[in-house]
C-alpha cells in the first residue's frame, strides 16, 4: 500500500495492532478499492495488521450488490461505480468522512451481522460525542438522527476479512444526494453541519478513533 494516496497518509498504530491511516486530499474510488483489496489479501495471509483507513472521495455514486437502476435518478451527474459491498446506491464526496474498516473476523468471531452491529454501535457512540443522537431504524442499515440519515454502512468480507465500511456526513453538499435514492430509502439525509455541530475533520477523526477503540478492541476474541 505505497501508491500516492497512501504515501500522503499519516500512520499510527494503537493497541491491538490496528493501523490507522488518514489520507489528505480526495482519493479516487478505484484507487481506494485496489488498496483495500491488496490490504485484505495481506491481512488474510498474516502479512499485515488490521487497518482503518479514513479518507474522502471526489463526488461519485456507488452501486452495491443490491442496487436497483431505477434508484439512479441522474446517471450523468457524477461517475457511477459498481462495487462489491453490500447495499444499494450511495453518494461519496468532499465533506464526507469515509472509513474503510479492514478487520480479521477469524480473530473476532465469524459473524458478519455482529460486525455490522458493532459498526453501528461505533457510529452511534461517535455521534454522541459529537452532539448528535444517533439511532438505528428497524430493517434499515445505517444510522439516523431526527428522522434523517447521517451515516451509511456497506461491507464486504473475503476470507473472513472485512472491507469497505461506513461513511459519516460531516459537511458534504447534501443536494448531491438528489441524483439517487440513497440506500433505497425515502428519508432525508443530514450532516453534522446541517445539525449545527462541529465539522472540523481532525476533531471528527479523533472522536471516530476513540469510539472505535472502545468498541472494536473489546470485540477481539480471547
Describe the secondary-structure layout:
Elements lengths: L3 H4 L2 E3 L5 E9 L2 H16 L5 E7 L3 E4 L16 E3 L6 E4 L3 E7 L2 H4 L3 H19 L4 E3 L2 E6 L2 E11 L2 E9 L31 H16 L6
Parallel strand pairs: 2-3, 4-5
Antiparallel strand pairs: 1-2, 3-7, 4-6, 7-11, 8-9, 9-10, 10-11
Helix pairs in contact: 4-5
Features:
5 helices, single chain, alpha+beta, three-stranded mixed sheet, 222 residues, BirA Bifunctional Protein, domain 2
The strands making up the biggest β-sheet line up spatially as 1-2-3-7-11-10-9-8
Could you name the CATH topology?
Answer: BirA Bifunctional Protein, domain 2
Portion in strands: 25-35%
Distance between the termini: 29 Å
Overview of the molecule:
The protein starts with a helix and ends in a 6-residue tail after the last helix. With 222 residues, the protein is α+β, with helices and mostly antiparallel strands. Strand 9 (140-145) and strand 10 form a beta hairpin. The protein is globular, with a radius of gyration of 16 Å. The longest helix is centred in the middle third of the chain and has 19 residues, at 112-130. Helix content is 27%, strand content 30%. Helix 4 crosses helix 5.
Amino acid at each position: 500500500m505505497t501508491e500516492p494516496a497512501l504515501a500522503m497518509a499519516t500512520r499510527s498504530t494503537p493497541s491491538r495492532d490496528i493501523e490507522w491511516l488518514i489520507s489528505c486530499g480526495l482519493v479516487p474510488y478505484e484507487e481506494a478499492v485496489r488498496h483495500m483489496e491488496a490490504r485484505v489479501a495481506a491481512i488474510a495471509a498474516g502479512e499485515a495488521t488490521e487497518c482503518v483507513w479514513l479518507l474522502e472521495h471526489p463526488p461519485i455514486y456507488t452501486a452495491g450488490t443490491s442496487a436497483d437502476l431505477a434508484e439512479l435518478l441522474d446517471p450523468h451527474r457524477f461517475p457511477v461505480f459498481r462495487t462489491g459491498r453490500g447495499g444499494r446506491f450511495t453518494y461519496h464526496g468532499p465533506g464526507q468522512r469515509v472509513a474503510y474498516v479492514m478487520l480479521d473476523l477469524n480473530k473476532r468471531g465469524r459473524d458478519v451481522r455482529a460486525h455490522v452491529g458493532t459498526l453501528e454501535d461505533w457510529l452511534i457512540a461517535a455521534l454522541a460525542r459529537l452532539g448528535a443522537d444517533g439511532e438505528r431504524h428497524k430493517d434499515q442499515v445505517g444510522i439516523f438522527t431526527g428522522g434523517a440519515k447521517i451515516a451509511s454502512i456497506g461491507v464486504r468480507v473475503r476470507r473472513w476479512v472485512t472491507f469497505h465500511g461506513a461513511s459519516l456526513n460531516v459537511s458534504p453538499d447534501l443536494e448531491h444526494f438528489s441524483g439517487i435514492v440513497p440506500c433505497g430509502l425515502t428519508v432525508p439525509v443530514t450532516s453534522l453541519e446541517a445539525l449545527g455541530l462541529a465539522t472540523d475533520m481532525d476533531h471528527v477523526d479523533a472522536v471516530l478513533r476513540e469510539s472505535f477503540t472502545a468498541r472494536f478492541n473489546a470485540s477481539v476474541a480471547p
